[in-house]
Amino acid sequence: MKKIFKKFPSNADLVFWLGLLVPTAIVFKAFFLPGPLARNDAPYFFPEYLRTFVDIPYIWTSWGEELGRVSNVLWIHPLMFLMGVLSNLGLESDAIVRILFYFPGVILSLISPLIFTRYLGYGKIVQFFTSLLYVINTYFVLLVDGGQVGVLLAYGLFPLSLLTLYNLFAKPQTSSFYQALVTFTVIGAADMRIAIISLFVALLWISAEYLTGQRTLEKKGYITALLFGLAVLGINMYWLLPTFTLLSQDGPSGGGALQLNSLLNSLFLFQPHWYLNQFGKVSPPYFYFIGLPLLIFGGLWRTQKDKRPYIYTFCFLVVAFLAKGEAPPLGFFYEWATSHLPLGVAFRDSTKFFIPLILFGGILLGLNVERLRLKKIAVGLVYLYVIALIWPPIFGKLNGVLAGHRIDPSFQKINNLIRNQPGFFRTAYFPEHDPYSIHTTEKQIVDAKILANKRPFASLNAGTFDRFNFLHDTEYLDWLDVFGIRYLVLSGDPRKPFLTQEEQYDWDSLKNLLDSTKELQKVDIGTNINIYQSPNNMPRIFGAKKLFVVVGGDDIYTSLKKKEERFSPKNQPFIFTEDGKWDPERLTEVKPESVVLILNNKKEQDFVLSLLQRYFISPEQENNQWALRSSSEYLEWKYELLKNGIETKEFDYNLGVAFSTNKGEKLIFSMDLPSGEYVLAVRSLVKSTDDSLNGTLGDITVEIKHASPGKFNWTIKENMNLLKGKHTLTLENTGGTHVVNAVALIPKAEWNNAWNLEKSMTDKISTVSVEGGTWDNQEDIADSPWVPVNLNFKNPTEYTVGIPTDVNWITFTDSFNAGWSINEDTKTAAYPFYSTFNGFYVPKEGFVTLKFEGQKFVQRGLYFSAGTMLLLAGLYTWKRLRK
C-alpha cells in the first residue's frame, strides 16, 4: 500500500499530464480570475463571524436563512474550526475557501483516481480516462459551479477513501486500519454522506468479489471490520450523539426523496440539472451523451480472463439504480429508505451516488478504450469526445461559481449600513440572500421565501402560486416588527441571473407594491438594489404580562385588529391549542391571572379535545383513496381548498390533512386497542352543510354532518364498547368536498378526565368567546405594552435573561424547538408562541438561564470522541514501539 502513495515517476509522459491539466484549467479557469468564488451555496463569512468558529461545536445555529435551527451538518465542525483559525491569522473568507475546498477538491479529483487505478494495477490509458472522466463530467462541474464546497472536497477524497476501505477489508492489518480510519475521518469532516457512500461501496465491492469466488473472507477480516466500525463511531460521537438523540425526540424525518434523477440520467452520467443548474428544472440526457454508456459497456461481450470488470459493472449498475432515487423502476424502495432509515433524509438528493458511478464508469471506459484497435487514434477521439460533452463551461455558459462573477458594489454598501446599526435585528432578502450578505450573531439573515412558509405570514398567503402574496395584507407590517426584521432587501435570486418576461413583471410589481407602502421607509444609499426599512423592529427577546391562549385559527389577529385599531401582536404573545406543538395541560403550571383563553369561533369541546392530542391519528399514516397533504405542505393544501371554494386559517394539529371531492372515496384508519368503552372523535371540514360523510367502525355507523361549513368541527360518538384487537374505521365520501384532519378513539375515563380538567382550568382562567366577530367579556382583552428584558449572550446555546417586575412571559424569537428551556432546576420547556417562536413562563423577577438542552449531548459526545482518539493514538504508538 505504501508504494501507491509515492510520487509518480518523474519521466511520466508529458502528453499524459497536459491532456489532463489543460482541459481542467480551462473548465475551472474562474479559479485563476480576479473576484471571489462565493456563489450559490458557496459561503462567504465575514471576519467577525468567522472568528467565532474557534470554539467547540454548537448544535444550535443561526447561520443560513432560518430563524435559528438545529445544525444538520455538525460533522463539518473540524473544517469550520480550521477556517476560524485561518481567519485569526489574517486570511479572508474567499482565500480560506479556496485553500481548504476549491483547490484541494479539484486537485484531488485529478490525482486520487490515478492512485486508485494504479493500486488496481491498470496501465496509463485506464489511469488517464478514469482521471479525465472523474474531473471532467456534468456532475462534478455543476458541483463546483453550485458552490457545494463540502461535497466538492469529499468528491476529491472519495477514491482514496474507497481505496483504503477496500484495502482494509481485503488485507486487514494495522497499517490498512489506520489509513482507512484517517481517510474516512477526513472525508467525513467534509461531508459524512459521501463517507457513508464510500463505506457502502467498499462493502458492495468486497461482497461481489466474495460471491463470485474472487475472494475469501477470514475471521480476522470480520474482527477488523468490527473494530473499524467502533473506532468510526467513537471518533464521530461529537455529532452522532446529539443528532440521533434529537432525531429520536423529534420523531422520524419525513419528506421522502427528491425525484430529480432517472435511470437514464444515471446510465448516461448526465446530471439532471445540466447545465443551467437551476433547482427543480431537470432534463433527460442530451442525445450526444449516448457515447458514454456505449464506451462503458461496449467491452462486456468479450470473454475476459480478468473478471474484475464484471465486478465493476455490477457495482456501477447498483449505484446507478440508487442514483435514480425514487424514480421508476422500484422507486418506492428509495423513498421508504430516506423516510425511515437513520440519517436517511440526508440522502434525499440521490445524485450523490453519481460519485462512485463516475469512478467505476471511468475505469470501464478506460478498459474498453485500451482494447480498441488503432489505439492512438481511438484514444484521441474518445478524449475529444469526453471534453466536448462539457462544452458549456469551456464557452462560459454557466451561471454560478465558474461564471467568474464579481461582487456587486451595492452589497458592500448594504453590509456597511447593516454593520453600523446598533443592537439586534434581522434583514429579509427577497427572495433569498446573496452569499455576500452580512450575517453575524447580532445581524441575522432571513430569506423571504422561507419567511413565507412560517406562520403567521403563511396564513396571510393565499397559497403557493405567489409566495409573497402576504405583502398585499398590511397586517404583515406588524409581523415584521415581531420577527425583528428591520430591513427588506430586494436583492433578487442569485441563482437566476436571467428572468423571464413574466418573472420580470412580477418582480417589478413587487417593487411597486413596497414603494407604495407608506409604513415602510425607502432607504437610499446609492445602490441599484431596493431597500426598505421597518422602523419598529422588536429585540430578539421581550417580555409581556399576559399570554393569549387561542382555541381556533390565527385569524384571531385580524379579529382583534378590527375590534381595536391600536392592537399589536407584539404587546402580548399568542399560543394556539390546535397547532399540535404542545400540550395545553401545561397551563395548569402557570398563574391563572397570567393567561386569557380565547375561543375563536370554537366551543369548550374543542378545548377539551386539545387536551387529548396523544390519542389523535393522522390521515397521513394510512393508505387510502383520499389525497394526502402533510402539515409542512400547509400552503399547498390551503390553496387546493381555496380552489374548491373553502378559505381557512385553521391549524391541523401538525398532523396534515386528507381531502376528497369524489363520491365513494374511502379513508381508512386501523387501530389496535385494549377492550373497554371508547369515544370516537373525527375532526373534519366540509364545503357545504349538504355535504355528508359516513363512518363505519365494525357494525357501528356514524354520520358526520356540519353546522359550520368551512371550519374544522369535531363529530363525537360516545358509548362505544370495543373488544381487544384491531379495529378499522372507514370514512366514505357520500357527496361533496370533505377534509379530514384527525380521528381518535379515546378511553371513556380519559374523556371524562379531560372534561373535568377543562372545567377546573376555565373556572380559574379568564375566558373570552368570539363567535362570528362578536366578542364577550371584552374587558379581558387588554392592550398592555411589551416589556424590554436584558439578554446576555454566553454562546449560541445559552443566554442569561434578566426578568423585570410584572413580566410573566418572555418571547425568544428563534425558531421554536422544544429543546429550549429556562432555569437550571425545573428546566421548563419552551412554548410555541405565535406557533413559530420559543416562549417561556417566568413566575418571578430576577435572572434565568435560557439554554438549548441538546448541547449537553454535544459535550458528552466530545468527551467520547476525544477519548477514542487518545486511545487510538496510544494503541498506534504502542504498536510502533513494539516493532
Low-confidence stretches: 251-257
Tell me the overall shape: globular
Q: Approximately what portion of the residues adopt beta-strand conformation?
A: 15-25%
What's the total number of strands?
32
**Which class do the helix and strand fractions yield?**
alpha+beta
Indicate the percent of residues in helices: 25-40%
Tally the structural domains. Answer: 4
Instruction: Please describe the biggest sheet, giving its number of strands, its sense, and whether it closes into a barrel.
Output: 6 strands, antiparallel
Q: What is the compact description of this entry?
A:
The protein has 883 residues and is of the alpha+beta class. Helix content is 40%, strand content 19%.
Write the layout of secondary structure elements.
Blueprint: H1 14-27, H2 47-50, E1 60-61, E2 69-70, H3 77-88, H4 93-119, H5 124-135, H6 138-145, H7 149-170, H8 174-190, H9 192-211, H10 219-235, H11 237-250, H12 263-267, H13 291-297, H14 308-323, H15 331-340, H16 354-371, H17 375-389, H18 391-394, H19 409-419, E3 425-431, E4 443-447, H20 448-451, H21 457-460, H22 476-482, E5 485-492, H23 501-515, E6 521-522, E7 530-533, E8 541-544, E9 547-551, H24 556-563, E10 574-576, E11 595-600, H25 604-610, E12 616-617, E13 627-629, H26 634-643, E14 657-660, E15 666-673, E16 676-686, E17 693-697, E18 700-704, E19 713-722, E20 725-733, E21 738-747, H27 748-764, E22 766-771, E23 774-775, E24 787-788, E25 790-795, E26 798-803, E27 809-815, E28 820-822, E29 828-829, E30 831-833, E31 837-841, E32 846-852, H28 855-882
Parallel strand pairs: 3-4, 3-5, 9-10, 9-11, 11-22
Antiparallel strand pairs: 1-2, 5-7, 6-7, 8-24, 8-27, 12-21, 13-14, 14-21, 15-20, 16-19, 16-21, 17-18, 17-20, 22-23, 25-26, 26-32, 27-31, 28-29, 28-32, 30-31
Helix pairs in contact: 1-5, 3-4, 4-5, 4-7, 5-16, 7-8, 7-9, 8-9, 8-10, 9-14, 10-28, 11-28, 13-16, 14-16, 25-27
Protein name: Membrane protein 6-pyruvoyl-tetrahydropterin synthase-related domain-containing protein
Organism: Candidatus Blackburnbacteria bacterium RIFCSPHIGHO2_02_FULL_44_20
Keywords: Membrane, Transmembrane, Transmembrane helix
